[in-house]
Amino acid sequence: MATRDDKRQDLRTRIIEAAEARIAADGVQTLRARDVMSDVGAALGGLYNAFEDLDDLVLRVNSQTLARLKVVLQAAIAGNGDPRAALKVLALAYLGFAQDNPRLWSALFEHRYAPGKSIPDWHLAEQTELLAYISAALRPLQPSLTDAALTLRARTFFGAIHGIVASSLAGRFVGVSGGDLAREIAEFLDLLVSGMAEKEEERG
């Protein structure tokens, strides 16, 4: 016989699945607690028995999205010992994930939490874990960097690639469209890595 905890966990799972489906179809900005619970077939109050609030629910959906992105990035760099190639495949894998899951990917950045609500440490750790893939690829290319500087460089690298992807997928006038996008990202990375190599030579 299912215990109360089992039933609560089952409800949490079904709510997350319903919210994820809603976000994937319509985007996070249209997510409403009443709609989610209607999809689940449960009373509105059930959401607040399973989660702190709607922000908490979105965090759980975003956590699953990050987990899927992690699998994609791991598969992209599996067996790749060339740091230059690793940076390129990571960037292109990120682009592919965003193209395949546009609204779930956007929810990672678009959701605005209630005033005074901070992102929990466990979710920040999930984000940092993904940046570690970039740091690992950058380390052989810039061995002179301290750990702190390497972390900062990884964040800058991600910001550059994310900016290109986000502006392009949003159709901004500065974005790159169609089949040009992947090629331009690859070319940009070639230039970036070449610049890193020159800097290391100057430091050496």
Can you describe this structure?
The longest helix is centred in the first third of the chain and has 24 residues, at 54-77. The protein has two domains: 1-51, Orthogonal Bundle (Arc Repressor Mutant, subunit A); 54-203, Tetracycline Repressor, domain 2, CATH 1.10.357. The N and C termini lie far apart (68 Å). The mean pLDDT is 91. It has helices at 4-26, 33-40, 45-50, 54-77, 83-100, 102-110, 121-138, 147-169, 180-203. It is elongated. It has 204 residues and is mainly alpha-helical.
CATH top level class name of the largest domain: Mainly Alpha
The secondary-structure class comes to mainly alpha
What is the arithmetic mean of pLDDT? Answer: 91
Q: How many structural domains does the protein architecture include?
A: 2
Taking pLDDT < 50 over at least 5 consecutive residues as the criterion, the unreliable ranges are: none
What's a concise summary of this model?
By secondary structure, the chain is an all-alpha fold. Helix content is 75%, strand content 0%.
Write the layout of secondary structure elements.
Blueprint: H1 4-26, H2 33-40, H3 45-50, H4 54-77, H5 83-100, H6 102-110, H7 121-138, H8 147-169, H9 180-203
Helix pairs in contact: 1-2, 1-4, 1-6, 4-5, 4-6, 4-7, 5-6, 5-7, 5-8, 5-9, 7-8
What features would you highlight for this structure?
single chain; 204 residues; mainly alpha; Arc Repressor Mutant, subunit A; Tetracycline Repressor, domain 2; 2 domains; 9 helices; elongated
